Amino acid sequence: MDPLQHVRLGTTELEVTRVSLGCATLGGVYSDISDEQAHAVVRTALNAGINFLDTAALYGAGTSELRVGEALRGIPRDSYALATKVGWRFEHVPGPSVFSQTWDSPGAWMVECVHDYSADWVERSLENSLTRLGIDRLDVVHIHDPDEHFEEAMEGAYPVLDRFRSQGVIGAVGAGMNQSEMLVRLARAGDFDCFLLAGRYTILEQGALDELLPLCLQKRISIIAGGTYNSGILASGSQGGPDGVRYDYMEAPPAIVAKVQSMEAAAARHAVDLRAAASQFALAHPAVACIVPGTRRPERVLDNLELVRAEIPAAFWEELRASDLIRSDAPLPA
Ligand SMILES: NC(=O)c1ccc[n+]([C@@H]2O[C@H](COP(=O)([O-])OP(=O)(O)OC[C@H]3O[C@@H](n4cnc5c(N)ncnc54)[C@H](OP(=O)(O)O)[C@@H]3O)[C@@H](O)[C@H]2O)c1
């Protein structure tokens, strides 16, 4: 597979590379990095030919956007596309916050985040994002994590984004979250160009095959697949790494660890890197435009490109199917 192939997002004019860059890690998930290291991650990605970055106001309470913006200074605006997200508002609290238990960057200290999909906040949030990023237009804006907030998202945030899109202020309207069900409701209720589906279409779980992915194909909504390493375990392996054995930002449950161990055994039999299998598997679904693996290390940005180029024997996929480790109706990489 060519990780740098350009594909269109929905019916928009935007074209993104099949391997793009997730920037949540640059907001300091679990442990912070220096500004310089974050800039190096972004620059490595752009220098390698990646043209699409996914960030959010939430990531480190603005820290990811600030660092992405600093890294982008001086780079021609037409050479990359950028997505951010709205729907979380920060509130200052006296002292370290619950939020800072997950996000370790300076921006995450002394703030709590609350959902806010009101039109007023969404407009202000977009202005704040543009300021932090140091740019004057956004390519993609997602409604972020409206899990329990369908009405607020559709009545508050969506009309603002829809209007900005029709005025050409933003290029595409999306929603980003960790579940398929609400994205199905949103797809039916609005005119969306793309969704960021995090962790729910991976080599470990494919529930999105039932309804969301066929609906997106039918409505020409592109999926940007996030969390294709399920936020850690498929990259670190079942033994874990410095962040532990992470699955969806939490300690992986035993059933998930056992499943990954079975996959690792199959991968070893066929000399396959499970990270390559995880990345190529997500990209094989025709609704998936791109993946956005996140990392704090510049060299891993390059690894994530190479992993998509790696050859994976058909016998490996056949073994995963035959052992019910992946669903039989999941499209396989060619
Ligand atoms: N609600 C939403 O909209 C939502 C939710 C989740 C994610 N997302 C998007 O999806 C992106 C990716 O998700 P994610 O960061 O949660 O999870 P992910 O991409 O599944 O996994 C990231 C983890 O994998 C490790 N990793 C990355 N490349 C690696 C490599 N080549 N070798 C070994 N380890 C590697 C990273 O560790 P190191 O940093 O140590 O390399 C990091 O801890 C986010 O950045 C964000 O843009 C959106």
3D structure, described in words:
This protein is α/β, with parallel strands linked by helices and 334 residues long. The protein has one domain (6-322): TIM Barrel (Alpha-Beta Barrel). The chain is 37% helix and 18% strand. The chain is built from 11 helices and 14 strands. It has helices at 35-48, 63-72, 119-133, 150-166, 181-189, 212-219, 233-236, 254-269, 274-283, 298-309, 314-322, and strands at 6-8, 15-17, 21-22, 52-54, 81-86, 88-92, 111-115, 138-144, 170-177, 194-198, 222-226, 246-247, 250-251, 288-291. Strand 4, helix 2 (63-72) and strand 5 form a beta-alpha-beta unit. Helix 1 (35-48) crosses helix 2 and helix 3 crosses helix 4 (150-166). The longest helix has 17 residues, at 150-166. The relative contact order is 0.14. The structure holds NADP nicotinamide-adenine-dinucleotide phosphate (NAP).
CATH homolog superfamily: NADP-dependent oxidoreductase domain
Order of helices and strands: EEEHEHEEEHEHEHEHEHEEHHEHH
Listed once per kind, the bound small molecules are: NADP nicotinamide-adenine-dinucleotide phosphate
| CATH topology value | TIM Barrel
Q: How would you write the strand order of the largest sheet?
A: 3-4-5-8-9-10-11-14
Structural class: alpha/beta
N- to C-terminal separation? 8 Å
Low-confidence segments, ≥5 residues, pLDDT <50?
A: none
- Let me know the number of strands: 14
Shape: globular
- Taking all Cα atoms into account, the compactness measure Rg is 19 Å
- Architecture, CATH level 2? Alpha-Beta Barrel
| Beta-strand share of residues | 15-25%
Helix share, percent: 25-40%
Number of helices: 11
Number of domains: 1
